[in-house]
Design a protein that fits this description.
This protein is of the alpha/beta class and 436 residues long. It is built from 14 helices and 13 strands. The strands form two sheets. A ten-stranded mixed β-sheet has the order 2-1-3-4-6-5-7-8-12-13.
Amino acid sequence: MAHIEAGIFKGFIDVDSLLQQQNSLVESKFVKSKLKDTSSLIFLESSKLKCYQVLNPNTKNASLKLTQTVEKKNNVNDNGVNNTFTLIEHEIKFKIRKDFYFAGKLYYLPTINNKIPNNNKEFNVKDILGNSCNSMTNILCFHGWYDNANSLLPLIPYLFYLQQKNDNRERKQIQYLITLDLPGCGNSSHYNHAYNLDGYLIDIFLLQFAILQWKENCILLTHSLGGLICTTYISLFGNYSKSNICISLDSFGYMSEDVKRVEKYKTGILMSINGFENKPFELKDMIEKRCKELSISSESAIILLQRSIVKCGDEEKGKAEIYFDEKDINENGLYNWKHDPYQRIMPASNLFLERDILTLLSQHADKLYFVHPAQSSQSMKQGILEERKNLFKESHIIKMKDCVGHHFHMEYPREVACCILEKIVWNLSTFFDSKL
């Protein structure tokens, strides 16, 4: 494991090299040691109780409106107020290596349910270590390129609210959900080497198996780049987990190399060079930029920006997020991006030929649910999609006819949450072995 600890996965690799690294990673002493207590590698930065008003609670179109976010205290209680819903959120960090941390958010319901603590009990990070019981599942979330952990933020409260509203002990229940900033994004550490596929795979593997020790009843909920990485991840390491399942939102493995992709590689290098200047922007310009680049609403852009930017002069304060209102948007204050400009470069090793992608996906292919909108900029040719689908032991393609756009999970969170719960999570048997 020394070579992994040292972070020597620099430069470019080929598929054969990656498959060799897969074997050495699984057999590494660090993972095999099965540490009994890795809580010393987990750090809680803050704890909050998020309170939502439930609009139209008795209809199919019930929606949630965030009304209050308060610092979590041991005696916080919603007192059973009608048409309200509460969710506990912890800002959290995981020390993967000496020079790298995964940052993200941990969510759970403030109710007693197996190992889940209630509002009157102080949270202990040891509670999240190890597998959930068979009636429950844990979820790890990974966002898309140049986004951050907040990409899944609109979706998360609906997953828990709909679960609580439709409580059924015979169905799988979400125990803990962790949404993470990928390396170089949000509050996670920046890599000191290229953002290659092998670096992502190694750090996710160490987080899931060596630190959290979630070897059973774990779902990977991913979007875009997160899906590219994790579809490969569950294929390579599907035989190491009893029940790894990937729900990939509008992403089914790496895109095949073509002329346009090579041109993007060149463009990314040039953009990164310009990014080193770290030119500050006004907030309204940043919002406009994200809306245009991602084809999303200003509300979704603001959610992403809260974790992506820092006000000039506040860099040393180390705030996980900043919150701003209409007044801040119209002010002339300047902000910098927090993400690593090197991330704009698409490494040459990520420009796979289709035969290489098929080789990676065919290793120990496990269960995959590919959920995509009716229209998206990330569409894949039907023939390629079917060929990749057939590599998995069990795979399902779910088309959401009423949703459009690559970030459809942010624009249609209730609809996507219903799909994930009703068509996937609640249809999983105790041993994750049933089909839709």
